[in-house]
Amino acid sequence: MKRLSLNYFLLLILVTIVTKSNAQSFHMTALDAYWEMIEPLKKGDSLSLKTWDKFLNLEPNQIYIKNQGFDKAYLERLRRSIQVVYMPQNAEILKKRVLAIEKDPSTYWLTYKVYVYKIHEKELKDFQQKLVSPDYLPLIYKNSFSWLPKYLQKKDDTVNIYLLGIENDAIAGSGTVIATLWNLYNADIIQTGALLGHEMHHVLRKPFHFKVEEQDQGLMYFLNVVLNEGTADMIDKPTNLANQNTLPFGLGLTDFLIPQADSIVTQADKNIVAMQKSNGKLFKTEKDYRNLVQWTSGHKPGYFMADIIVRNGYRNQLLENIQNPFKFIYLYNKAANKDAKNPPVFTDDAIKYIKIMEKKYWSTKSN
Question: N vs C: which end of the chain shows fewer Cβ within 10 Å?
């Protein structure tokens, strides 16, 4: 009887361990659906609209499509590009496109994005299998935790991580992380777990939400997104920039992060000063600020600003205030004033207005 009880107890412990270890995993339904969808095309079948629509309607695909703003025309071009890449009867068309792609992938950008999945299918499928290893998820959290203060270094098993077989980006929000396999595969070659660590950071940082009046929505958008992407970029972007020459076309991010970042800061300062001088009556909308940051979600100038903060010795202060978008601006100004490259700073009038905004909204914050 004692042995039976002991065996039962050990079994209960084992079940508990397995349950906890399986509490979070990769959801590969959309990725597996891609691999399944292309098989008939290799034999000459076309990609029917019915099959394509069924594929696109998978939940992670829908989330990604809406986030990226893909319209019906774009998705139809993508469907046709998939047919060109995989159907044998389109071999001559593909051959001509590949010759152009080898000189400049942007000439047939959609074909290129599909073609890499074809020519690297074995490596990508092998990599996909490695992701189910119990050693992989801890690497994601390790990267995220490297840019979070102790009180935010908590795993969240409720976050769903989805992998896709189309496109080459990664996104996060509302308890969901989505990565395209081609992007993740290449990012992991240079820094394992960093790309998903970046995306997980957006969730684990627990950004505050504010009750914002209409005239302030644009500015508050700007303050929040440069903090959100700037701090997460410290996880993976330095490695990305250091490996520009080894990354495939479209995955090196120097042009995405750096050019005009300084001029964006300068223009944001002018916008804020205009608000200060007019007591908030002259303001820019959220759309204005989305245009200003060039629809990068804040990567530009967020990376530029966070990098200046870090290289001038304020990393710890940034970590301590990683949920505070107002402090991010103050720290940037302190760092920029010290920086040998003389980056633009926010003027005194702009800082005065940001302090007014902080007094107005910090007390309304909520997760």
Answer: N
